[in-house]
Amino acid sequence: MATLKEKRTCGQRCEDFGHFVWNSDTKQFMGRTLERWVYISLYYVAFYIVMSGLFILALYVMLLTLNPYTPTYQDRLTSPGVILRPDIWGEEGLEITYNASDKKSWMGMTNILNKYLLHYNETHQIESNRHCPSGLYSIQKDFRGPHHTKYACIFTREMLGSCSGLEDPTYGYPEGKPCFLIKMNRIINFLPGKDGSPPYVKCTVLEGSASNQDLVDYYPVNGTFDISYFPYYGSLAQPNYTNPLVAVKFNSITKNVEIKIECKVVADHICTDNFHDPYEGKVVFQLKIES
Prior knowledge:
The chain is α+β, with helices and mostly antiparallel strands. It is built from four helices and eleven strands, in the order αββαβββααββββββ. It has helices spanning 10-21, 34-64, 103-116, 122-128; strands at residues 22-23, 28-29, 82-85, 89-90, 93-99, 179-184, 200-207, 216-219, 245-250, 259-266, 282-290. 27% of the residues are buried. The chain crosses the membrane at residues 37-63. This is Sodium/potassium-transporting ATPase subunit beta. This is the non-catalytic component of the active enzyme, which catalyzes the hydrolysis of ATP coupled with the exchange of Na(+) and K(+) ions across the plasma membrane. Its main location: membrane.
């Protein structure tokens, strides 16, 4: 009958481990002599130096193929999205409801507009940007701006007329004639018009009485985005760029009735019927003014 292997005690196991860590007979540390440790250390140092060098070289070559000012691939966006200010979100999208006689109910929205238009103050725009000829694309092949940048065109809040917040800091909200700002998202090198025709904003009532759109004012004139603000060259090339805006003022809104409004940007190269992106080329919002 085979004998059972003798079970080693804890002390014997510790002694074996200590013998493995340092073998005084063979002068080995953890199974290797000093000479062996030097060789294997040099091998791994050289190995990781070579691997790091190859990685850095590959990264450097890849960066040489990239343009820091323009994305290599721009297949995600062919038409800009549209944004509304003030942007008050509800359960079913943009829902703007306020009481014209209650200052607290609309003060938050006017504060949003005031904060958003700070960068459009004339003093800030003149310091950072320059006047551009209207009706012409701002094509810039060279970097003639300061610090190797391209110039951006001036857009001041004065161009928004009675929706600028300068003459009427309440933006018409207590009178039940609210102002809204329409902005297109930026797309590098995007030219929105065709044959020099500028895109413009058109708002229609989808749900509710059509009389709500009888008296609508657009600023600038005809609600146009002048093409001099296009193309956009990117945040690195145009760090001072500010989006052109269109202000829409509704003067005949029926009180205490919720209406659904669609504001779309009309242009040949702007899509407004993308089922998968409801905010491409247009913005839809609910509006209710309580008395």
